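To close the section, here is one more complete example, presented without commentary so you can practise reading it yourself. The ligand is ribavirin triphosphate.
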Amino acid sequence: MSFQRTAKQTKVAGKMNFKLSLLFLCSFVLVFVHGFVKAQSNIKSQVLSSRSETRKHQRSVVDVVKRGGNGLHSKLSMSSERSYIMIKPDGVQRNLVGDIIKRFEQKGFQLVAMKLVQAPEELLTKHYEQLADKPFFPKLLKYMTSGPVCAMVWQGKEVVATGRKMLGATNPLQSEPGTIRGDFCLEVGRNICHGSDSVENAEREISLWFNPSEICEYKSCQFDWVYE
Ligand code: RTP
Ligand code: MG
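Output:
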């Protein structure tokens, strides 16, 4: 009788041992899986943060280069200057949009934004705010609101200064032949195209006429054939 009880007890103890082992094994597997998942997510977040740091760094390097802060030069930064070029109402009416665009394209500049705008007086007042006290200002506003203008952003190496040279002098009679004003017009109050006169003014004018989302960022397929 006492022998039978002992055998039963042994059987029960055996079952208990098996259950305990199973429990132990399951806990071990759970701990292992948890550790593995945690390690994976740590690695992922490290990779992501290092990528974002790299991007930040690239941006800051380009910013430094743009400001000429450390004397670095790269094709990318040299070619990122932008100018606001606007074909005035007479240029649009006289079908000169294509000719003017062609000159900037042929030179090697890159078109990054363009639209036709019937500009309100308030926008033009802000655009030409430096001329607000000039006697010709009311005449200028009337001229500039007389029809749609073609607003553009052109990008490339020294596009601001070069764009001004391509336009020619404000008074078309003093503009050299070969320039846009020298070739296409006669009167200061009908001088068909505007170009920013400094990099600072270019950025100010671009932000007046365009939302950032309207300006494209892309690498032209001609890039390596234009820049050495
Ligand atoms: P824009 O800003 O249009 O590119 O011309 P700009 O720099 O060559 O000349 P700016 O002095 O800024 O003058 C802006 C525009 O005003 C008209 N204007 N009329 N004496 C006059 O009647 C006179 N002077 C300037 C021109 O249309 C000039 O482009
Ligand atoms: Mg001007």
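Once you have examined the tokens, check your reading against these statements. Residues 131, 136, 140, 170, 188-189, 191, 194-195, 197 surround ribavirin triphosphate (ligand 1) (CB under 6 Å). The two ends are 102 Å apart (CA to CA).
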